[in-house]
Design brief:
CATH topology: SH3 type barrels
Radius of gyration: 13 Å
Helix content: 10-25%
Shape: globular
Strand content: 35-45%
Strand order of the largest sheet: 4-3-2-1-5
Oligomer: single chain
């Protein structure tokens, strides 16, 4: 699965018992892909000592602050790997 700029995505709401780079404040929320950054090792795998780690596309995803926290007229951009996302 890959996402293009402008695609609406939902961050998976899971809470793994290991390291993850998915901030809690975006889990389960819907955002918009700004751009595909590049393919990089998944940091969850690196932190767990998985060798070799999976390599996935990392995306810059924009979220409305009001959607995340109930107020604010600004946006928050978070870099998220492909396996963290589903189509919205």
């Amino acid at each position: 699965m890959s996402f293009e700029a402008g695609a609406r995505v939902r961050v998976k709401a899971r809470d793994p018992d290991h390291h993850t780079r998915v901030p809690r404040y975006v889990r389960g929320h819907t955002g918009v892909v700004l751009t595909a950054i590049d393919r990089w090792p998944v940091p969850d795998d690196c932190a767990r000592g998985i060798d070799p780690p999976r390599e996935e596309t990392c995306y810059a995803v924009r979220f409305s602050a009001a959607d995340l926290w109930g107020s604010g007229d600004h946006a928050v951009t978070v870099d998220l790997w492909e396996s963290y996302l589903d189509r919205a």
